[in-house]
Amino acid sequence: MPDPILDMPDGLDRLRAVMARLRDPDRGCPWDLEQTFATIAPYTIEEAYEVADAIDRDAMDDLKAELGDLLFQSVYHAQMAAEAGQFTLDDVIATVTDKMIKRHPHVFGDESREKTARQQIRDWEATKAKERGAGGVLDGVAKGLPALMRAEKLQKRAARVGFDWPDAAQVLEKVVEEARELAEARDAGETDRIAEELGDLLFATVNLARHLGVDAEDALRRANAKFVRRFAHVEAALNGRGRTPQDSDLTEMDGLWNEAKRLEWRG
Known about the structure:
Blueprint lengths: L11 H11 L7 H5 L2 H20 L3 H24 L5 H14 L2 H4 L8 H16 L14 H14 L7 H21 L2 H21 L4 H25 L9 H17 L1
Helix pairs in contact: 1-4, 3-4, 8-10, 9-10, 11-12
């Protein structure tokens, strides 16, 4: 007899049925039955990054697929929560719907829509702070965020209560200071201090990006892409000479790297 799920119309109900079947103790998938919130969490993070990658590449077909994968992660977590008697997918949907209505009184309430985007962001943050209650300023900044992103969020939270450098010039001075302290730790050969000072330098650099109005995560992502692009030029040029990077040396590869830079500037 054909499985009734195969004949269900496309939509959220069919996806929920698929998820429930995967976790069915008698008919489900052994791998899915072994999973927990903790083991699935890395896949959830990975899918979010793949969504961002598809957007960055302007690949709409890929984005459609990746959004589906990310949606499936929400359904997966909700299914496990329902099995444990914690909450259901309907509860998840109701919670986020109510939250969006509450945080947009200028759309669903009586507040005026005559605000700038900056004012709306301030109102949004004020509402979130009220929802957090009497906790500390930095409470609620997820520890599982990528370190670069978490650094920026921590700094923004502190800045809201006045704990911030007044301008980018002073932050740049702090970056230079941290670089100097890292050099001192390196010269002293103090391994633990080197790691600490490097962390301070990275944190200060994120702060500088924030003051300059640059998204640090995006800036580093662009730098990664640039490195990949230029190194690909190095490899291609060496291949044209019948060699690989392993057969080359730093002087030759650095020359080809600079060639790649010049070509980009001309282009």
